[in-house]
Amino acid sequence: MTSAISAPPEEIARSRAVKRNNALTALAAGGALAVFAARAYGFGLHRAGAFYGLLAGLLYANLFEYVLHRYLLHWGHSFLVGRHALHHDSAGTPQEARYVNFATSPWVVVLLFASNALPVFAVEQLLHLGLAPGMFAGFTIYYVLYEEIHWRMHLGGWLPDWLQSARRHHMLHHGGFEGRYNVFLPLCDWIFQRRQWKRSPSGPAGPTTTRY
């Protein structure tokens, strides 16, 4: 649907700065949580907890992205739905760079990590598996990749060949196809909505009124 940078150079520069600040905030928040969890709980599962935790964190992040995108950004008439609609409506326009980032304030990224830390700590406290440090690392890696890849999908930039199909997948979401809520790793899309991938767009209704 879009890949050419049509936004003014100053908007591109601003968006790059936001992306960089968000990534640095995510690395700081996720790193701090991982260190705290390692000191509090250590690494379980015969010291393979770091690997299994990393894998669990990546899978959890993919599920969180899917649920957030499907139910909080595309369902109803909330503030979040309205903000996300600006991202859809600006795609391919000079305003695209203004609304492509996950958030414009690093504090939103901090809130994202803090809110997702609660269930991780709760499960760790209950089961004592030693997965929490790796999970925070996996969640952080997933977020940084999401922000960078999503930005490049919309505003241009090199992507490896294996991500070109993911880009087409995401742009079909912007084109009105049902589903396709994962941006670069459509795992939950495949699990929950693969039957809808090949459906034709139902019409031009915007995301503020339609549940895709």
Gyration radius from CA atoms, angstroms? 18 Å
Low-confidence stretches: 200-212
Main sheet properties: none
Structural domains: how many = 1
Mean pLDDT: 88
Can you walk through the features of this model?
It is a single chain. Helix content is 63%, strand content 0%. The chain is globular. It is built from seven helices and no strands. The model is unreliable at 200-212 (pLDDT under 50). The chain has 212 residues and is mainly α.
Brief synopsis:
This protein has 212 residues and is mostly helical. The protein contains seven helices and no strands.
Question: Main traits of this protein?
Answer:
mainly alpha, 63% helix, 7 helices, 212 residues
Write the layout of secondary structure elements.
Elements: H1 9-41, H2 49-72, H3 79-90, H4 106-127, H5 132-155, H6 164-174, H7 187-193
Helix pairs in contact: 1-4, 1-5, 2-5
